User: Fold this.
Amino acid sequence: MKREIITTNDGSKTIHIPEWNEQYHSIHGAIQEALHVYLKEGLAFFLASESFDKKSNTTTLLEIGFGTGLNALLTLAEAEKQQIQISYTGIEGFPIALSELKQLNYAEAVDLTNSAALFDKLHRCDWEKACAFSEYFQLKKELRPFSEINYTNQFNLIYFDAFGPRVQPNYGRK
Assistant:
């Protein structure tokens, strides 16, 4: 399926699939969307809640739709900033090509030392193995279709970042 890189309204890039008329991120702003939906209304909301165990200062996070790795990069930056230990699992059925990733400008927008190298490492980590980035962030990428997800009560927070039913009408059906 053909994919092309486009620039969103906040200047960040995303991947567009012409056949579906669908983007990986909002055309109004890839980074702006991720910061609002996943970091502010997801991670920050959870960390401020009673559900977050402040004594252990750790959390487990599942992302359904790892895609470009933008949410993982921003979460890594937040884990470092707040010194919170995050064990991050990203599920993806159709990984992005490294040639596409090199065209994305996410590392430039993240306040994180060595952000470009860390963004690259997010994608070069072996699938199915935990990869430590620091004492605060660990990533495990799982290569599988969403229909094969069978976790039960293993995560404190879920980023649901899959395409919607308009372009994936059979999602969740067996």
Observations:
- The mean pLDDT is 92.
- The longest helix spans residues 30-48.
